[in-house]
Amino acid sequence: MPGDSCEAQILVAGQRYLDRPTVLENILKDLFNVFQHKTCQNLKQALDILLLAMERHNHEKHIQISGSASLYYVVKSESLKRDWNVKVKRKILGKLLNGWNGCPTLSQFQIPADVLFDYKRLVKILLHIVSEHTSQENNDIQQAGIRLLYNLSRQADVQQEMLMSSLGVMEKMLLIITDKLQQGVCDEVMEHAWATMWSLAVVTDNCERFLTGGGLNLFLQCKDRFPDEAELLRNMMRMLGNIAYYPSLRHKLMTKEFVEEFAFLLDSCSDGIEVSYNAAGVLAHMASDGPQAWAVDQPDRDHVLFRMARAINRWDLRSGRNINYRSFSPIIRLAGVSHTPECQLWAIWALANLTTVTPEKYCKLVVQEGGLSLVEEMLNENSDQVKTSLHQVKEWAGIVRSNVLKWEEQGDLNLEFDG
């Protein structure tokens, strides 16, 4: 007999009143209470009712909200996950994408692997969520949406990055940051907005969108308004670091205001060495174009390079890093800039640090992208193109070579053991 006194009665009522949205809304609330207290015994039947209710009443806001809330607890069930096939998983994801607030539940899935079948629609929905749910009472929804968007961006391949660019992700992030600035609020939403842009800035088009949308001015405003926010500063510096990678774009950073800011941040202790490291990276790329490209009289190029070298020599080579490089090609290019050894100092320190702290991840990248060959030429002094006038560069180059050789030897030992 249908009723709300126990789980069995709630499930019977759910099946019987699927076509009566007013009654069904209350049934789903009762079902949510069962899930919330982790007492549900028949997860499969409950899942069937939830999916049918959300499918039949796609435009009933309260049913979609209750259904999404219950699905959060359903998808956390390890026993149920073991029995899922692709069809069931996609059906759940489809209902969440159609629903009113599926972000917390979506975060329980493997992103982006589980959403590739409907990737474009998910990005559009997330952009709508983070752009429209801007009031204080909807802050949790906006935070959940931007976390998901960031997770998508940092794991996107080139094609997905271009798709996100075409859907206006960079522009939306800039609008969110502008809105937060006007509110005088630096929160997780603002930090993730900068992090999302940084993740997508490996594509030149996204960097250009950032520049066109006034991103440089927003950097200065955020820096002035929130000078003590370490996470924000780190994300912003990484964004500008990606712009500095591109020869066609980095001249836009060559202004007195920006060079002074980067030079000042060389001595920053915010977030360990990360802010100082990123500031030095930006300046190294700008200096790599040679003295003729240094288009400002102040700060003086030689003075900036002196301060850069001083900062780099203070860093601990064994510093743990909160960074994820997909490619070393920009760093390896700087390691070959013989006309400005301070550029080499930053680049070789980066390689020495990363192969020391995370050899299993980065030694392979050094070998694959030609870094080991460049280091060998530098140490053997058998190339006019790859040479350095700084003893410290050679010392750190030796550490890079030693780290890579140890990693290769360890790989050979593992092969022998497996054999």
Which class do the helix and strand fractions yield?
mainly alpha
Query: pLDDT under 50 segments (min length 5)?
Result: 415-419
Shape: elongated
Strand content: under 5%
Order of helices and strands: HHHHHHHHHHHHHHHHHHHHHHH
Bin the helical content: 55-70%
Q: What number is the mean pLDDT?
A: 85
Rg, Cα atoms, Å: 26 Å
- What's the total number of strands? 0
The major beta sheet can be summarized as:
none
- Per DSSP, the total helix count is 23
Describe this structure in words.
- There is one protein chain.
- The chain has helices spanning 7-16, 21-36, 43-56, 61-75, 78-83, 86-98, 103-106, 119-132, 139-154, 158-166, 169-183, 188-200, 204-212, 215-225, 230-245, 256-265, 274-287, 301-314, 329-335, 341-357, 359-368, 371-380, 391-418.
- By secondary structure, the chain is mostly helical.
- α3 (43-56) runs antiparallel to α4 (61-75) and α22 (371-380) packs across α23 (391-418).
- The termini are far apart.
Defining traits:
single chain; mainly alpha; about 70% helix; disordered C terminus
Question: What's the topology here?
Answer:
Layout lengths: L6 H10 L4 H16 L6 H14 L4 H15 L2 H6 L2 H13 L4 H4 L12 H14 L6 H16 L3 H9 L2 H15 L4 H13 L3 H9 L2 H11 L4 H16 L10 H10 L8 H14 L13 H14 L14 H7 L5 H17 L1 H10 L2 H10 L10 H28 L1
Helix pairs in contact: 1-2, 2-4, 3-4, 8-9, 9-12, 11-12, 11-14, 12-15, 14-15, 15-17, 16-17, 17-18, 17-20, 18-20, 19-20, 20-21, 20-23, 21-23, 22-23
